[in-house]
Automatic annotation (TrEMBL):
It holds the Pfam family adh_short. Transmembrane segments: none annotated. It comes from Lentzea fradiae. This is Short-chain dehydrogenase. GO terms for molecular function: oxidoreductase activity.
Length: 282
């Protein structure tokens, strides 16, 4: 079946690699990226639609949701693949810590604004994330902005935990209405993902040629699980509400990711933060 698949963060890296593979398989791929020139280049290569949005601006996310809703009769897969790690104490124009906003709050908002269309399409929502056991010991729902001390690596790991919690709560709330959700770990991939961070470790892994060659896999390899989830049938090829690593449900999942109360609390807190800007009304 030919599907309409929206991929954010598709101007480069895993997103672009997945877009190319899905296009070759005959699906209608919609490319979303931050960099207008790179996003347009990928879309032109594939002969497909594209949209530009900067996740550090929630107005861009609102506009993106309106454009997607208007341009596409149905959305079969929403792949929330865009992300980044920063560590700069400067806030976004919306007042949020950038790693939190780009990795969690912006895709949360996009998904919520598209929810009617996703439900009508019986869609799958896929989150690109990473999460290893023990890397996050607590998640303070009253300090998602890291006002009590910002550490680039800790903020990034917290955002990745939030991706999994969002996936599980999305499944809990809407799977019985036909929506499916999954999160996946693509491996350590050689992309430009960490190039803007103030963390020396993250920047070294992202930009040093030796570390990229020895420690990291290719974007094409990293895209395999995204492609598998986007093209597979929920309930047959994969289970909704799960976190996948290496093609199978993750066995090293942080115990916090299994806390249903924390997942509900994150959802409610995220809505409250967005309600404060007059964004989410559903």
């Amino acid at each position: 079946m030919r599907r309409t698949i929206v991929i954010t963060g598709a101007s480069d890296g895993i997103g672009a690699a997945a877009a190319r593979r899905l296009h070759r398989d005959g699906h209608r791929v919609v490319v979303v990226g931050r960099d207008a020139r790179k996003t347009e280049a990928v879309a032109r290569e594939l002969g497909t639609d594209h949209h530009v949005a900067d996740y550090t601006r929630l107005d861009d996310v609102r506009r993106l949701a309106a454009e997607l809703d208007s341009a596409h009769e149905r959305i079969d897969v929403l792949a929330n693949n865009a992300g980044g790690v920063f560590g700069d104490p400067a806030r976004t124009a919306d007042g949020f810590e950038r790693t939190f906003q780009v990795n969690h709050l912006a895709p949360f908002l996009l998904t919520r604004l598209l929810l009617d269309k996703l439900l009508a399409s019986r869609a799958s929502v896929i989150q690109t994330t990473t999460l290893h056991g023990g890397m996050v010991r607590t998640l303070d729902l009253d300090d998602l902005n890291h006002d009590r001390g910002l550490n680039a690596v800790r903020a990034y790991n917290a955002a990745k935990l939030e991706n999994v919690l969002f996936t599980k709560e999305l499944h809990r709330r809407y799977h019985d209405q036909g929506l499916s959700a999954a999160a996946f770990y693509p491996g350590n991939v050689a992309t430009n993902f960490g190039s803007e961070t103030t963390s020396r470790l993250m920047r070294f892994l992202a930009t040093n040629p030796l570390s990229r060659a020895v420690l990291l896999t290719t974007p094409d390899n990293g895209a395999r699980e995204l492609v598998r989830l986007a093209t597979g049938a929920p309930g047959v090829d994969w289970r909704s509400g799960e976190y996948y690593a290496g093609g199978a449900p993750g066995k090293r999942l942080n115990k916090l990711a299994l806390d249903a109360g924390l997942a509900r609390g994150l959802w409610d807190r995220s809505e409250a933060l967005l309600d404060g800007t007059g964004t989410v009304t559903r």
